[in-house]
Amino acid sequence: MPGGEPAQRSGPDRVDWLRELRGLVLMLLAVLGFHSFLAKPFYIPSISMMPNLLVGDRLVVSKYPYGWDWSSISFHLLPRGDWRVLGRTPEYGDIVIVVPRNRKEDLIKRVVGLPGDRIAVINGQIVLNGKPVPQRAEMPVQLPVEDQLMCDAGGFQKPCLEDFEDYRTRLPSGREVYELPAYRETLPNGASYTVIDHANQTLDHFPEITVPEGQVFLMGDNRDHSADSRMPLWGNGLGGPVPLSDIGGRAEFITFSLDGSQGWNPLSWFSALRSGRAGSSLRPPLDPHAALQRSSS
Q1: pTM of this prediction?
Q2: How many Cβ atoms from other residues are within 10 Å of residue 214's Cβ?
Q3: Maximum CA pair distance of the chain?
């Protein structure tokens, strides 16, 4: 202003780092709480649940259907224990995440045996309480050839589907696929889903046991390539039935799926998207006729 003192320019406001840090901590706690008590994302790293879950599927796991326990907490921050809050038992056919007793690593498997059940596997077929679980042969499952898809194999990477090379074929359209033998399996409550069983090997035979109270028996849908309740802990399996307190949630639906061709560039993710998988429910359809037949037999 004419004849006056020049205006003083104030400096930039100081950052309140304590307030910023408090806001960041609160945000992280909110995310941790949501992932621990409501739902969290999950990534499929192996072929054990094919054909219903493919390597590269991203899905949502809900945390509340069976109550909460130590394995519900994200990153497994709590010590292992057998306590449960509002605990409930899964149903036949549910796909669940489970933490093996000898390591803190989330696996994903299907519930095929409930507390008190007598369960065996004979020639690849589940025998539940003395009755074979129905398996109906279906048309072969066609899985796309994705040579770029890599899986961990004891510390090194290998093509996820290399064990299926004998089933590799070219369709009249020119597209290459793996055509794998498939069966429709139906559990006593009518839960129905597709399994793959292409070889006669050790996992196809499991002597009858009784599932203890408070535990469930889990298997993968890819019956010849699943380290589950049929396999001992030292073989990276689950070592038999698993306590309900080691189950951290139920798989609900697929959000999106990548075929392994993506790189660090986010633009490459769009070309790697598998079509038709986003939004797919992971709850098995129920066949009420099959359940009624089972209960009346």
Answers
A1: 0.90
A2: 15
A3: 105
